[in-house]
Amino acid sequence: MYLMLGITDDAHISNLLKSKLTGYRDFHTSMYTCAVEFDFMEKETPVRYMKTLLLPVVLAVFVAIVVKVFQHILHCKNVAGRQRDPNHGEMAYHAIQLIFFASLAILIMRLKLFLTPHMCIMASLICSKQLFGWVFHKIPHRAFALAILAMMAGEGITNLQKEQSIVGEFRNIPQEELLLWIKENTKQDAVFAGTMPTMASVKLSTLRPIVNHPHYEDAGLRAKTKIVYSMYSRKPAKEVKTKLLKMGVNYYILEESWCLRKPKPGCSMPEIWDIEDVANAGKVPLCTLMSRDSRPYFRTVFDNYVYKVLEVAKE
Question: CB of 126 within 8 A of CB of 57?
């Protein structure tokens, strides 16, 4: 669909959904699915929805909407010429949207950022006289609404207090050393490449040009990042160096932790590369070789226990 419309930036979404429903994997889908944010919804999320009573209230509203819409449809069929109530259409739309948002959030945990606000909107309909008028015949409307809010607020206040109690200070000494070294020892127009999070810091703190950054949804940046991340593949150093030079890279920031880390099976960077680079599978990862000795295609110009800056050899 995306290719037919000439849209390349979002073309990876179909592959991402395909990977969730089947065993399909490629480099880009693995970069997403190996991240916690793009994994399936964790069990703690519905538990938190239950504790705040958000999920039970939304389910009650959803069932009430379904019942009301079906009753309205049947009544319209039985009464010829009856004008349809637009409110039923709006409620049905929100109920259908809730199903789609819930499905997406279950498949991709990060997308609960759409689900949670929509659930809060749906929960407000617990006070609708149109849906729960039969309840208000027995319990005063305001008393019912206040009782629901009071029950939901208990866990909500606890969550707020927990968040407000978090007091801390962010320090990253190795990265501070790296950024200071870049500012003091490289030219203003020196071009850097490396992992997406680190590149964002380099651009923000040193104003040096970078070839890739965390906007992975852009098709052009995905292609560039894939070339940059070939340092964590098993490809020959000469091949990687040649591609970096074509992009105008002067310095590569190597992070050995990215070579070793494995958030879950099959998710280390060399394993992700093995999906598409079958010819080099089984070889020692290039990042491991660069950590030992970066010559002759690169020259180590800065090194601490987290970061290693490799100058790309011109010859």
Answer: yes
